[in-house]
Amino acid sequence: MEQYWEKADYSWTDDSIRCFNTPSQRARQLFYYVQEIGHFKAMKPYFTERQHLKSYLLKYTFGGRGKLIYEGREYTLEKGDVFFIDCMNYQHYSTISDEPWEMDWIHFYGPNADAFYGEFMKNGSNVFHAKNGRISQIIDEIMALVETRNAKAEFRISLLIHEMLNEVLIQKYDLAFEEENIPDYIIEAKKFLESHFKEKITLQDLERVCRLNKYQLSKEFTHYIGIPPIEYLIHFRINTAKRLLRYSNKSVKEIALDVGIEDPPYFNRLFKRKTEMTPLAYRRNG
């Protein structure tokens, strides 16, 4: 394993806060946990350069300006900007404004942190502009728990980190919408898939039904429903098959046909890929 290294300049104000945390063995095995957390007002020539640290870092900018160099890209960070990085990779961040770069930050880790980071990086950018201040509020709540540790703190910190990661995804991908904000044509496409799931359906079919370009429809369907239209159709078929496997005596071949899949071996492979068990194993274990 490559060795951790770091270079840094610690030019921050006296009222800046930096809290260290040593999680319990239980927390490292079960929870999300804090490694370090703080609030900095960092003046030039503040910088950090490092690599091979087993940690994730999230920073929220309040004021001033910072610069992040990461994975071959350079980002300028201004008020309301958030960056989220895997500290195993090379990183360099620094103050670039005459006034202090003011930010909340948290180093954390946990059993599912890698998966959250992978989801965050779907669009390839480590930086986004926050829609509101909730991310920073959560970091402050976590910092208060780290500073006043008690028997419940690790549980509550784990819950708050999980909330923070959810909030990061919601704000980055603009998912803070109400159900009534979902466009009618997306609802129409969803209902069409559910009522015609036994049929062979293509994006061209949805394009005709919704009178919207299939690429735009697929993009907006994914945004509002969470998965692309054809993937939603597959999930609906699998869910219907689960119900039939559990509450009917139909054979696997009959059920495959009932959910619109004419090739039983393909149905078996698809069902196992989506549920990690064969249809017969699902019926036995249900």
Characterise the protein shown here.
This protein is α+β, with helices and mostly antiparallel strands. The protein is built from eleven helices and eleven strands. The strands form two sheets. The chain has a six-stranded antiparallel β-sheet, covered by helices on one side. A hairpin with a 2-residue loop joins strand 6 (66-70) and strand 7 (73-77). The protein is elongated, with a radius of gyration of 24 Å. The relative contact order is 0.10.
Question: What are its keywords?
Answer:
five-stranded antiparallel sheet, six-stranded antiparallel sheet, alpha+beta, single chain, 286 residues
Instruction: Provide the structure class.
Output: alpha+beta
Oligomer: single chain
Radius of gyration: 24 Å
The N- to C-terminal Cα distance equals 43 Å
In short:
The protein is α+β, with helices and mostly antiparallel strands and 286 residues long. The protein has helices at 25-30, 113-120, 134-147, 153-172, 184-195, 203-210, 214-225, 229-247, 252-258, 264-275, 279-285; strands spanning 5-9, 17-20, 33-42, 47-51, 56-63, 66-70, 73-77, 81-86, 91-95, 101-109, 127-129.
Secondary-structure map with pairings?
Blueprint lengths: L4 E5 L7 E4 L4 H6 L2 E10 L4 E5 L4 E8 L2 E5 L2 E5 L3 E6 L4 E5 L5 E9 L3 H8 L6 E3 L4 H14 L5 H20 L11 H12 L7 H8 L3 H12 L3 H19 L4 H7 L5 H12 L3 H7 L1
Helix pairs in contact: 3-4, 5-8, 6-7, 8-11
